[in-house]
Amino acid sequence: MARLPTARKADALTMAAAALRADAANILAENAKDIAAGKANGLSPAMLDRLALDVARIEAIAKAVDAVAVLRDPVGMVIDEAIRPNGLMLSRVRVPLGVIGIIYESRPNVTADAAALCLKSGNAVILRGGSEAVHSNHAIYAALQKGIVKSGLPADAIQLVPTQDRAAVGAMLRAQGLIDIIIPRGGKALVARVQEEARVPVLAHLDGINHSYVDKAADADKACAIVVNAKMRRTGICGSTETLLIDRNFDQPARLLAALADAGCALRGTPEVIALEPRATPARDEDWDTEYLDAICAVAFVDGVDGAMAHIAAHGSHHTDAIITEDVGTAETFLAGVDSAIVMWNASTQFADGGEFGLGAEIGIATGRLHARGPVALEGLTTYKWVVRGNGQVRP
To answer: How many whole angstroms separate alpha carbon 205 and alpha carbon 368?
Structure first.
């Protein structure tokens, strides 16, 4: 896989996308089995939304694979180079990570996104999806494999663990020397287990406890539009705002709260919030540290940008945080001072997505500080090696 030419990888992905479209009816039929099982097992509406496929979503999955096919190939890319005084020529060159294990829940599009990104970046991938999407994952995987085999690539470049036995996850986590890195994508319990048990490196985030802060200098129309979108566009994605912070000197807080409540959002707030919006209910301590993935939002008033940054530092998850303001200085203070993988100014946190960043599909949002941070796409699935070219130099 590491030595495949760019054109062959692109052809394989194009054929895989075509196979997804051709197998759409079968994928939908298998997804219907997962939806029925999810309803029977009491999955929340937000989780069912993450699981559900329709014709438009399958087309979006196929388009994402097509988009990865034409992205710049990172393998072989020269990061930097230099010539030493002794004439040695040094360069740092991007290379694949190797065999990537991806453990994920609920969202069947991850099967295609992960496979496409790993293939394009020259890696082999072992996929282990959650039981909620077992039928959907197998149908998508079967289509992808048809495409890559048709293109002449080895079938095992993309593998799907055939069992839902939890022991398979443990085996992957202990597979030092066989799997080079594990990427979990799912709920807090899954990611915590992976980080606790893994004997191979892990690239992960635990939560998307994202904040939107409305500054005193925010434009009220803009603030209402952004906040409602950030919370309610799709509540079940990791880029959804979970906590709204409002400057005590913002002049239209009641309008902002009403806009959220009118959109169907359940507000959990401090006494100040409830005094302005009677549909709100009292917030509990745990609300500030909860990733709802639902139409629920914790709300608090803060004293300016310093108060907002202090709250985010205490309760955030280093995922995505946004400020809404017309004051450039205040915005730059926030952007520089908030230690998150993604910080935004006057934009919805729902833009926390590799596709929206122009990266094609993504594996996930990494919130750590090593290797990759933010949306992990092609470059995040590579490392580098030093290439040294000489003409007979020996070290004195």
So the answer is: 7
Name beta bridge partners: 268: 281, 298
Please tell me the chain's helix, strand, coil percentages from 3-state DSSP, rounded to the nearest 5: 45, 20, 35
Distance of alpha carbon 233 from alpha carbon 88, whole angstroms: 55
Residues 305 and 297: their CA atoms lie apart, in Å, by 20
Residues 119 and 99: their CA atoms lie apart, in Å, by: 10
**Among candidate residues 343, 339, 335, 341, the one with its CA nearest the CA of residue 365:** 341
* CB 173, CB 201: distance < 8 Å: no
Nearest partner of 188 among 288, 105, 297, judged by Cα: 105
Residue whose pair of structure tokens reads 């919130």 in the numeric block: 367
**At 96, which helix (H) or strand (E)?**
strand 89-96
Burial letters 22-36, b for 16+ CB under 10 A, else e: ebbeebbebbeebbe
The pLDDT assigned to 20 comes to 98
Q: Predicted confidence band at 362 (pLDDT cuts at 50, 70, 90)?
A: confident
Q: Write the CB contacts of 285 (distance below 8 Å, at least 6 apart in sequence).
A: none
Q: What angle do CA 39, 41, 42 make, to 5 degrees?
A: 65
For residue 132, give Cα distances in angstroms to 11, 159, 184, 222, 327: 31, 19, 16, 38, 46
Cβ proximity of 142 and 102 under 8 Å: no
Cα angle for residues 190, 194, 196 (degrees, 5° grid): 115
- The predicted structure's pLDDT at residue 105: 84
pTM of the shown model: 0.84
How much is the pLDDT for 103?
94
Task: Write down the pLDDT at residue 166.
Answer: 87
pLDDT in tens, 282-337: 999 999 999 998 999 999 999 999 999 999 999 999 999 999 999 999 999 999 99
